């Protein structure tokens, strides 16, 4: 009865109470395998991943080769961020049974959560080859499309999963993530830089954007730069619009148009067009190749370079061990 109530409490997300019940069972019967597995599992759900890994590891020493314990250990390792170690455990299971669906899903998730999207897609595909109706693999592929910028693909997969698994929480979570990615957004930014030559830069920005299910997004924004060095002050008001195209596989093509108006403390003004085109190709979530041809408000404005404030933007050491390399400040 205690074991059953512990399970019910854990499924109801009352994790502290569940842990106490499992502990009572284990106090009376330390060799109770289901209680020990349940306790280690709930520890992982409660975010106590080091403790969970330690308990699963001890259980595996007592029960070598136990599939349920190995799956629990691999999940906890993956949630902890030890993706390679988790993959080793899953691969041990696959050496015994190449069609172990839970292990196939587990390997896919180790790659997905470490940002290796192409490998994750391959392993989700292996799972679907064994079990074509597997919900976890279908949902996982939807997230891969979303993370790689393929909003159209993510939307199609999400709709298919919701149709095949109505009311399923994982399907609903994927659908909500896709809607959020397509929803309008507003973003503010503020930053300040100082260097040892008394050059100062402050930046205030406001931008808004929205996307579509076809992988097309539009961003509009305004940024105000205020710059000062020992002999002069300058400011720039920059307006811009960006068209973002994301066909998928981490690819992105961006077209940017805008104008900046610069003014110095001596009353000089200057207006420049800015914009250009940039392309990014994502090998996975960690590695990207980028290329751009564009005119930037900060780096190229004559107002700034004439007043020597360009020192703030060179990619070189300034001050004591500080290197300025701030692409977030550049358009």
Kindly list the characteristics that best describe this protein.
alpha+beta; two-stranded antiparallel sheet; 13 helices; disordered C terminus
Helix proportion: 40-55%
> Shape, please?
elongated
Count helical runs: 13
Could you tell me how far the N terminus lies from the C terminus, measured between alpha carbons in angstroms?
Answer: 64 Å
| Helix and strand run | HHHHHHHHHHHEEEEEEEHHEE
State the major sheet.
7 strands, antiparallel
Which structural category do the helix and sheet elements fall into? alpha+beta
Q: Which regions have little confidence, pLDDT < 50, spanning 5+ residues?
A: 299-331
Oligomer: single chain
- Cα-atom radius of gyration: 27 Å
**Order of strands in the sheet with most strands:** 1-2-3-4-5-6-7
What do the pLDDT scores average to? 81
Structure notes:
By secondary structure, this protein is an alpha+beta fold. Helix content is 47%, strand content 27%. It has 13 helices and nine strands. The protein has helices at residues 2-11, 15-28, 33-45, 49-62, 67-80, 83-96, 101-113, 117-130, 135-147, 151-164, 169-182, 297-300, 302-306, and strands spanning 185-194, 200-211, 216-228, 233-248, 251-264, 269-282, 288-295, 317-318, 322-323. The strands form two sheets. The chain has a seven-stranded antiparallel β-sheet. The longest helix has 14 residues, at 15-28. The chain starts with a helix and ends in an 8-residue tail after the last strand. Residues 299-331 have low confidence and may be disordered.
């Amino acid at each position: 009865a205690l074991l059953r109530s512990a399970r019910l409490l854990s499924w109801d997300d009352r994790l502290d109470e569940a842990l106490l019940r499992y502990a009572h069972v284990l106090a009376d019967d330390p060799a109770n395998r289901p209680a020990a597995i349940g306790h280690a599992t709930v520890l992982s759900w409660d975010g106590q991943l080091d403790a969970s890994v330690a308990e699963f590891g001890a259980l595996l020493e007592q029960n070598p080769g136990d599939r349920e314990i190995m799956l629990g250990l691999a999940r906890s390792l993956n949630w902890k961020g030890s993706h390679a170690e988790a993959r080793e455990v899953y691969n041990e299971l696959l050496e015994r049974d190449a069609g172990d669906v839970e292990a196939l899903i587990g390997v896919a998730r180790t790659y997905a959560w470490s940002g290796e999207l192409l490998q994750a897609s391959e392993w989700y595909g292996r799972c679907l080859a064994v079990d074509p109706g597997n919900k976890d693999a279908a949902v996982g592929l939807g997230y891969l499309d979303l993370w790689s910028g393929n909003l159209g693909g993510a939307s199609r997969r999400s709709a298919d999963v919701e149709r095949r698994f109505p009311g399923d929480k994982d399907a609903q979570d994927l659908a909500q993530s896709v809607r959020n990615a397509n929803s309008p957004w507003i973003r503010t930014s503020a930053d300040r830089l100082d260097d040892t030559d008394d050059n100062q830069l402050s930046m205030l920005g406001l931008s808004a954007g929205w996307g579509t299910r076809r992988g097309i997004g539009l961003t509009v924004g305004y940024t105000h730069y205020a710059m000062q060095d020992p002999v002069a002050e300058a400011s720039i008001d920059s307006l811009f619009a960006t068209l973002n195209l994301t066909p998928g596989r981490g690819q992105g093509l961006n077209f940017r148009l805008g104008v900046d108006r610069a003014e110095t403390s001596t009353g000089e003004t200057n207006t420049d067009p800015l914009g250009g085109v940039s392309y990014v190709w994502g090998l996975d979530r960690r590695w990207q190749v980028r290329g751009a041809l564009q005119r930037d408000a900060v780096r190229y404005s004559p107002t700034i370079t004439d007043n020597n404030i360009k020192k703030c933007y060179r990619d070189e050491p300034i001050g004591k061990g500080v290197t300025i390399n701030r692409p977030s400040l550049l358009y």
